[in-house]
Design a protein that fits this description.
The chain crosses the membrane at residues 51-75, 81-101. By secondary structure, this protein is of the alpha+beta class. It has helices at residues 11-22, 56-73, 80-114, 131-140, and strands spanning 2-8, 28-32, 119-125, 145-149. Helix content is 50%, strand content 16%. The protein has a four-stranded antiparallel sheet with strand order 2-3-1-4, covered by helices on one side.
Length: 150
């Protein structure tokens, strides 16, 4: 039987390995996972999207400022259409800059945290009779996930 478990790199991982070695299980394979080598992109492509939009706040502010620009444009020289378009452009640029600033700050903070947090995959080869005990040890030592292969 093979048991596969994932852990965050911590003292609980070492304790789980030592407890299983005390049980007489020596077929333990630990694989530390590497962090993503490339930085995530700020703009999405047609083939890859992370679900974060930089245009939503820009569109909301474009509508808001275009309504204000059009209503104020009745009293101004160029008229409501031009001032509505000017307001929409200004609102979109402001909203886009707000989203861009927020996302770059968030990604920088996430990159610093991500560098400290890695996972380790354990593959344990054991007898079927020891499977329940090994699984219990893994869950007690705060495994992120456990799977069995018969």
């Amino acid at each position: 039987m093979q048991i596969v478990a994932t852990f965050e790199h911590s003292i609980q991982l070492e304790m789980a390995i030592s407890k299983m070695e005390q049980m007489g299980i020596n077929d333990i394979f630990a694989i530390p996972m590497d962090n993503r080598p490339e930085q995530p992109r700020l703009f999405d492509t047609i083939h890859r999207s992370d679900g974060i939009s930089l245009f939503s706040t820009g569109m909301i502010l474009a509508v808001f400022f275009s309504v204000i620009g059009a209503s104020r444009g009745f009293a101004l020289n160029w008229g409501p259409i031009y001032w509505g378009l000017i307001g929409a452009g200004f609102g979109f640029i402001v909203g886009f800059c707000i989203d861009l600033f927020r996302q770059t700050r968030k990604k920088k903070r996430h990159r610093e945290i991500r560098g400290k947090k890695t996972e380790v995959v354990l593959i344990i080869e054991c007898k079927d009779s020891d499977g329940q005990e090994v699984e219990k040890i893994l869950w007690e030592q705060l495994a992120v996930g456990v799977g069995k292969v018969h």
